[in-house]
């Protein structure tokens, strides 16, 4: 990234923010300084709870619900935001300071077309007339290499893929040509090839318009591609700050070095048991959604007791659809799902309670998977009550046992609500809920993708221990190949609803590969600031913005309806 250091745009000094907890205010940001110049990108990294998103919000003069800015100075282009009126701050937000959220799918209004949401800010600030704003949207869509830029905006959010929607959100943030954009984990939930497109598109448009940016992430390899400077945070304190290349080569503090060393966990690969019937067999299944084209085509693989099969592939490859077929939520149109050699009814409504109990799911986004208004003991207790008929003292004992299993103290968490927990703790509750049914097979659907690397490693270690203790089989849906290396025994690679390659993990990571597997492996970011530029050059991409070409990710250009 090129950095223009001539003019300071944002100056934060001794920032202090408090959060309300247990009927008192407690310090959560403890005197952080930040200086950002026009055209510069600063990366904020640190584990969950470090204060990255809180500082990002404060850069807009905003304090999230349950927090307050209690001290310090936030000066944006000469305006002191800590003392500015709400009207003054609202005049900046969306116009001169924009925000790009982690999940575009959750941030867009599903009831309105993309272009109507894009044009809302320029119309509100009277910067453009509707026709001009729509034409400008198409220009930005083209710059961000979205397919059919003249018409994609007239679709609804659910009619485009995740990677396309994330780029559309970046275009929307650029609609008023802001001076500063806050990117809050914008690629966390994307597969590796789609992530390249989004990163390249963001980098291209920030460079072109000399826009300053704060890039919040827990992925060190990603921040290496995006940032001029990196600031490391821990529990609301600044640990250290340095230019990206210097930070990557020679971090000074022990905590920063520990971040650089994460993902050390890797367990030994298990071999299939000889002469054993698979616990779950997916046999030649096809599947389609109502009124749509075929989304699964002759998919087959086996999962054995006590083993982990990782299913990898881009967005839209059919990973989660296969899981829906296994659980009976989407009956296959051809083929069958077998449990211990016997065919399961295709539709979950025709399965017995015991058949339903055997296969459980842990979901990607614990925030949306757990009801925020239901206490933890009820969330975990319901499956135990339904499948095992437990009540009263027996049910409480089982919930306590499950909380112990996931390494959360029962006395502390039994009566809490999900919003009172961290992301990693919420995911542990999701694991406990799945275990409450006493299953033999668990589908883990991107369970670490929304977590920082330290927390994710803890979740992987927990799942490994539970597998050994309870002899569980896992189907691990993921786009993170580091996770595959850590936990898988066998790997299934999917593209366009088909299995293109499968086998033991060590074989899958040893050349020669299927060309698509090779594409996935080569798309994993590395801790090298020049990695993305070099990769694009190797793939024949003339400039950063061309990264969304079919050479990088043809699947992302398909409409996911």
Structural commentary:
The chain has 561 residues and is of the alpha/beta class. The protein has 2 domains: 8-260, P-loop containing nucleotide triphosphate hydrolases (Rossmann fold), CATH 3.40.50; 280-521, 3-Layer(aba) Sandwich (Rossmann fold). Helix content is 35%, strand content 24%. It contains 23 helices and 20 strands. The strands form 4 sheets. It has a 6-stranded mixed β-sheet with strand order 6-7-8-3-9-10, sandwiched between helices. The chain has a 6-stranded mixed β-sheet with strand order 16-17-18-13-19-20, with helices on both faces. Helix 7 (162-173) packs parallel to helix 8.
Short description:
By secondary structure, the chain is α/β, with parallel strands linked by helices.
The CATH architecture category of the largest domain equals 3-Layer(aba) Sandwich
Number of domains: 2
Taking all Cα atoms into account, the compactness measure Rg is: 24 Å
Q: Helical region count?
A: 23
Helical/strand content category: alpha/beta
CATH topology of the largest domain: Rossmann fold
CATH class of the largest domain: Alpha Beta
What's the CATH H-level superfamily name of the largest domain? P-loop containing nucleotide triphosphate hydrolases
Record field, number of beta strands: 20
Tell me the layout of helices and strands.
Elements: E1 8-21, E2 24-37, E3 41-45, H1 52-58, E4 67-76, E5 79-80, H2 86-92, E6 97-100, H3 104-107, H4 114-118, H5 120-124, H6 130-143, H7 162-173, E7 180-184, H8 192-208, E8 212-216, H9 220-226, E9 229-234, E10 237-243, H10 244-249, H11 254-260, E11 280-288, E12 294-303, E13 308-312, H12 319-327, E14 334-339, E15 342-343, H13 353-358, E16 359-362, H14 366-369, H15 376-388, H16 392-405, H17 410-413, H18 423-435, E17 441-445, H19 453-470, E18 473-478, H20 481-487, E19 490-495, E20 498-504, H21 505-508, H22 515-522, H23 531-538
Parallel strand pairs: 3-8, 3-9, 6-7, 7-8, 13-18, 13-19, 16-17, 17-18
Antiparallel strand pairs: 1-2, 1-4, 4-5, 9-10, 11-12, 11-14, 14-15, 19-20
Helix pairs in contact: 7-8, 15-16, 15-18, 18-19
